[in-house]
C-alpha cells in the first residue's frame, strides 16, 4: 500500500496545572487504555503510574484520578520506562523510539537527542530510568547514559561494546558515587568519573543474567528467579525462590519483589509478607501500610481487590469505531495486513475482540478472556437493529470466521454468546468484514474469500440466518458497505473495482441489480478501492490505494450508461495538481457542515472544505495528539461535532467547531473572546452558524470592516479589515443572517492589540 510521506493547553504535571504545549489543546481528549501498569512511584499519598500511552495520578485518601497523555501535554505514545523524584517533583518518561519527556511543575520538555552508539542498528527504546537527585541513568539496548534533570542535558554515556557486539543495560541505578547496571552477563559498576564512558574500565561485580535493580538505603537486584541485597560487595540472597520476577523496588523501609505474588521484606532481608492480587502484575509498592500492585490488565490493584485507573477501553489496539444513541460506543480491535488480506493481530494481543462503552463505563466481554474462539479478529461490531441489548460482531479469521451475536447483561456488565453464524464457511473462506443497516432495519454483512469473489450476507428473520449474495468478480478483498439511497456501496481492496448493490427487496435475490466500477469508469490503476463516504449533495467521495475520486450525484450517476468518477484538481504554484495523487485514502468522513475529514495512510488526517479545494487543518502525529499517521477509522458525532480518530495505537477525539448545522442558527459562540494579541495570534472562530450565513462585522461607529459568506456552520476571521490590515483595538459587532433572511444572530468581539 502506498503511503504519503509527511515531514513536516493546560497540562498536568506533579498534580499542578502548567503552561500549555503546542501539540495539544483543550479540544483534544484521549480514549486510551490505562490498564497495563509499567511503573509506579509514591509521592505523599499519591501514586503516579505509567502505562503504555500515558500516566495517571491516584490520590489514595480521596480516590481522585487524573491523567496525562499526548492529548493534554505529553509528546509521544509507547511509554517503556518511567521514574519520578518526589523531592523535586520531577518525572522522566522514556518511549519506545528512544525519546523522552521531562515533567516538571513548570513545563513538559521533549528530549529527542539521546546519544546513540555509532554503528548500532538495534532497538532504540528506553529500557529503564532511575532518578537519584538531579541525575537520571537511562538504560538502552547499547548501554546507558547519564541525564541531568536540572539543565535537561545528557552527560556521559557508556556504550557496552565487547567483541563487536553491543550489550543492553536492562536496568541501572546510581548508588553512592557509582552507577550499577544489570545485564545478561552480570552486575556491572563504574564510578562517575572521567573513564566512565570506556566500557573496558567497568567492573563485573557479580556474574549472571540479571534483569532488575533498584536502590535507596541499600542496593537490590535480581535474576528471573532470585533477588539479592548487595552489601559492601557481597550479594545476600532473599529467602525465596521465585518463579519469574517482574520487578524489584526498594524504599526507605521495605523491599518489594513482584512475582506471581507480591513479596515484602525488611531492609535487612527478613521476609514480612506475601500477597496474591489474583492476576499478573508488572510492579508493586507499599503505601500507607498497604500493598498496591501495578497489574497487566486492571490498572492499580489493592489487597481488597479494588482497582484504580482512568476510564478507557481494555487495550489501546483499535481498528474501527461505531457511535450509537445515548453515548454508546463499540470499538473493534481487529486488523488486516498485506493489502487487506490476512489477519494481522500482534502477538501481545492474541484475542482482543471488541470494547463496549455503555455511556458511563467501558465493558470488556469476558468471552474474549475465558472461552474465545480458536482465533479472534473483530473488524466490526454493531448494536443489533432488532434488539438494543444485543451486539453483532464480525470475526475475520482463517478459522472460527463468521458473525457472532451476543447479549448484554446490564447487571453483570458482561456479554454472553447467543448464536454463531458461520455464513456457510469453511476454514480460510467467507471471512466477514463489516455491517450495514438500512432504514428498514435490514442487516447486511460484507465478506471476502468466497471462492475468489466478494459477497454480501443478508439477514433473513424467518430462518434466523444470512442469505448469500455473490458477484462474479476476481477479488477476495472487500470493505465495510455504506448505505446510500437504497443501495450498498462497497469498496473492493485488492482489485481496482467498486461494487454498488441495488438490492431492492432485501430477501429477494432475484430482483437485484449490481453495478461494478473499474478503470473504464475513471479509477486509476491502483491496488484497490479502500473507502467511501457521501456528502450533503449526494456526491460519493471514494478513497483508493492511489488517490481520491468523486462521483457527482452518485445515486443517479451510477445508473447511467457509463458512470464516471473524477479526481479533485487543486491549483499548486499556478499549475493544476490532483489532490492526494498516489496516496492511500484509508477513511473519509463528512461532518454536519459538509466538510471532509480524510485519512491518508502515513500522512495523518486532512480537514478539507466542502469542495475539497482548501485544506483547513492537517493533523499529524508530529503536530497533534494523533498516536500515528495512519488512522484506520474516523467517525463524526454530528450532534456535538466531536471527531473520533481510531488507530492501532489508540483512539483520540477532537472537538470540532461544526455541529448540528441546519438552515437556522444554533447557539452562536465566538472564541477566543476577547482576543488579546499577546496571548493569541490566530483566527477568531464563530460557531453555531446556519448552513449558509451572511456575515457583516462592524466597528462601534457602525462602519463595516469585514464581510463574508460562511458555509457549513462556522467561520474563522483573521481580524483583518477589508484592506487586509489588522483592525484596531476595540469592540466589534458581528451581524448575521441566514440564506433567506428568516433568521438572524449577533455577537460581539473584543480586540486588544
Summarize the structure.
Keywords: Signal. With 753 residues, the chain is mainly beta.
3D architecture notes:
The protein has about 750 residues and is mainly beta. It has a domain at about 670-750: Sandwich (Immunoglobulin-like). It is about 0% helix and about 45% strand. The chain is built from 2 helices and 69 strands. Strands 63-69-68-65-66 form a 5-stranded mixed beta sheet, with no helix packed on it. β6 (about 55-60) and β7 (about 65-70) form a beta hairpin. It is globular, with a radius of gyration of 29 Å. It starts with 10 loop residues before the first strand and ends with a strand.
Question: What is the element layout, followed by pairings?
Answer:
Layout: E1 11-13, E2 16-18, E3 28-30, E4 37-43, E5 46-51, E6 54-59, E7 65-69, E8 79-85, E9 90-95, E10 100-103, E11 108-111, E12 128-132, E13 135-140, E14 143-148, E15 153-159, E16 161-162, E17 165-166, E18 171-175, E19 178-183, E20 186-191, E21 203-207, E22 212-215, E23 219-222, E24 227-231, E25 234-237, E26 247-250, E27 255-258, E28 262-265, E29 271-275, E30 281-287, E31 290-295, E32 300-302, E33 307-308, E34 320-324, E35 328-332, E36 354-357, E37 362-363, H1 367-370, E38 378-383, E39 390-395, E40 402-409, E41 414-421, E42 431-437, E43 443-450, E44 453-460, E45 465-470, E46 482-484, E47 487-492, E48 497-502, E49 513-517, E50 529-534, E51 540-544, E52 547-551, H2 554-557, E53 569-572, E54 575-578, E55 585-590, E56 596-600, E57 604-608, E58 615-619, E59 633-636, E60 642-647, E61 650-655, E62 669-671, E63 675-676, E64 684-687, E65 692-698, E66 704-711, E67 714-717, E68 730-738, E69 744-752
Parallel strand pairs: 63-69
Antiparallel strand pairs: 1-2, 3-61, 4-5, 5-6, 6-7, 8-9, 9-10, 10-11, 12-13, 13-14, 14-15, 16-17, 18-19, 19-20, 20-21, 22-23, 23-24, 24-25, 26-27, 27-28, 28-29, 30-31, 31-32, 32-33, 34-35, 35-36, 36-37, 38-39, 39-40, 40-41, 42-43, 43-44, 44-45, 46-47, 47-48, 48-49, 50-51, 51-52, 53-54, 55-56, ...
Amino acid at each position: 500500500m502506498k503511503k504519503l510521506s509527511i515531514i513536516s493547553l493546560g497540562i498536568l504535571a506533579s498534580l499542578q496545572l502548567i503552561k500549555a504545549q503546542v501539540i495539544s489543546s483543550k479540544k483534544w481528549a484521549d480514549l486510551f487504555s490505562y490498564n497495563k501498569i509499567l511503573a509506579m512511584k509514591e509521592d505523599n499519598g499519591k501514586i503516579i503510574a505509567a502505562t503504555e500511552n500515558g500516566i495517571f495520578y491516584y490520590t489514595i485518601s480521596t480516590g481522585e484520578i487524573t491523567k496525562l497523555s499526548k492529548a493534554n501535554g505529553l509528546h509521544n505514545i509507547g511509554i517503556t520506562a518511567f521514574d519520578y523524584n518526589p523531592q523535586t517533583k520531577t518525572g522522566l518518561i522514556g518511549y519506545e523510539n528512544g525519546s523522552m519527556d521531562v515533567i516538571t511543575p513548570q513545563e513538559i520538555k521533549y528530549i529527542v537527542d539521546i546519544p546513540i552508539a555509532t554503528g548500532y542498528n538495534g532497538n532504540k527504546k528506553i529500557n529503564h530510568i532511575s532518578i537519584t537527585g538531579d541525575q537520571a541513568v537511562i538504560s538502552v539496548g547499547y548501554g546507558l547514559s547519564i541525564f541531568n534533570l536540572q539543565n535537561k542535558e545528557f552527560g556521559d554515556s557508556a556504550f557496552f561494546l565487547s567483541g563487536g557486539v553491543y550489550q543492553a543495560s536492562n536496568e541501572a541505578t546510581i548508588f553512592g558515587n557509582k552507577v550499577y547496571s544489570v545485564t545478561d552477563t552480570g552486575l556491572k559498576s563504574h564510578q562517575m568519573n572521567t573513564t566512565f564512558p570506556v566500557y573496558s574500565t567497568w567492573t563485573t561485580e557479580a556474574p549472571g543474567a540479571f534483569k532488575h535493580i533498584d536502590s535507596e538505603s541499600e542496593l537490590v537486584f535480581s535474576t528471573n528467579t532470585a533477588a539479592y541485597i548487595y552489601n559492601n560487595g557481597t550479594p545476600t540472597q532473599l529467602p525465596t525462590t521465585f518463579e519469574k520476577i517482574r520487578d524489584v523496588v526498594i524504599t526507605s523501609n521495605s523491599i518489594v519483589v513482584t512475582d506471581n505474588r507480591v513479596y515484602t521484606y525488611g531492609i535487612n532481608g527478613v521476609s514480612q509478607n506475601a500477597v496474591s492480587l489474583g492476576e499478573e502484575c508488572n510492579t508493586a509498592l507499599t503505601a500507607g501500610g498497604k500493598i498496591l500492585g501495578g497489574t497487566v490488565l486492571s490498572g492499580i490493584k489493592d489487597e481488597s481487590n479494588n482497582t484504580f485507573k482512568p476510564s478507557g477501553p481494555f487495550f489501546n489496539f483499535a481498528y474501527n469505531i461505531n457511535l450509537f444513541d445515548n453515548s454508546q460506543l463499540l470499538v473493534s480491535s481487529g486488523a488486516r495486513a498485506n493489502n487487506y488480506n490476512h489477519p494481522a493481530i500482534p502477538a501481545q494481543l492474541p484475542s482482543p475482540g471488541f470494547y463496549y462503552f455503555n455511556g458511563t463505563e467501558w465493558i470488556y466481554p469476558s468471552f474474549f478472556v475465558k472461552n474465545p474462539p480458536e482465533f479472534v479478529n473483530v473488524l466490526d461490531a454493531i448494536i443489533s437493529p432488532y434488539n438494543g441489548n444485543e451486539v453483532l460482531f464480525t470475526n475475520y479469521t482463517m478459522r472460527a470466521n463468521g458473525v457472532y451475536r451476543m447479549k448484554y447483561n446490564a447487571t453483570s456488565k458482561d456479554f454472553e454468546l447467543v448464536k454463531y453464524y458461520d455464513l456457510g464457511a469453511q476454514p480460510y473462506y467467507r471471512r466477514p468484514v463489516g455491517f450495514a443497516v438500512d432504514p428498514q432495519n435490514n442487516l447486511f454483512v460484507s465478506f471476502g474469500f468466497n471462492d475468489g469473489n466478494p459477497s454480501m450476507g443478508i439477514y433473513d428473520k424467518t430462518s434466523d440466518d444470512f442469505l448469500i449474495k455473490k458477484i462474479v468478480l476476481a477479488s477476495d478483498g472487500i470493505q465495510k458497505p455504506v448505505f446510500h439511497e437504497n443501495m450498498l456501496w462497497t469498496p473492493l481492496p485488492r482489485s481496482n473495482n467498486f461494487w454498488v448493490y441495488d438490492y431492492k427487496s432485501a430477501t429477494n435475490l432475484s430482483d437485484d441489480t449490481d453495478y461494478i466500477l473499474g478503470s473504464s469508469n475513471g479509477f486509476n490503476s491502483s491496488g484497490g478501492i479502500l473507502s467511501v463516504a457521501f456528502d450533503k449533495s449526494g456526491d460519493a467521495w471514494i478513497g483508493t490505494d492511489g488517490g481520491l475520486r468523486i462521483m457527482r450525484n452518485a445515486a443517479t450517476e451510477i445508473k447511467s450508461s457509463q458512470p464516471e468518477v473524477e479526481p479533485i484538481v487543486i491549483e499548486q504554484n499556478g499549475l493544476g495538481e490532483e489532490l492526494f495523487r498516489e496516496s492511500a485514502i484509508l477513511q473519509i468522513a463528512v461532518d454536519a457542515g459538509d466538510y471532509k475529514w480524510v485519512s491518508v495512510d502515513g500522512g495523518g488526517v486532512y480537514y478539507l472544505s466542502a469542495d475539497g479545494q482548501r485544506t483547513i487543518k492537517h493533523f499529524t502525529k508530529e503536530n497533534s495528539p494523533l498516536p500515528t499517521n495512519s488512522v484506520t477509522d474516523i467517525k463524526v458525532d454530528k450532534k456535538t461535532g466531536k471527531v473520533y480518530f481510531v488507530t492501532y495505537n489508540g483512539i483520540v477525539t477532537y472537538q470540532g467547531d461544526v455541529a448540528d448545522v441546519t438552515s437556522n442558527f444554533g447557539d452562536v459562540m465566538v472564541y477566543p473572546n476577547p482576543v488579546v494579541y499577546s496571548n493569541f495570534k490566530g483566527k477568531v472562530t464563530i460557531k453555531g452558524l446556519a448552513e449558509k450565513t451572511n456575515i457583516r462585522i462592524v466597528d462601534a461607529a457602525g462602519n463595516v470592516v469585514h464581510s463574508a459568506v460562511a458555509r457549513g456552520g462556522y467561520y474563522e476571521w483573521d481580524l483583518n479589515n477589508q484592506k487586509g490590515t489588522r483592525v484596531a483595538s476595540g469592540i466589534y459587532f458581528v451581524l448575521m443572517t441566514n440564506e433567506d433572511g428568516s433568521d438572524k444572530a449577533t455577537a460581539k468581539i473584543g480586540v486588544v492589540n
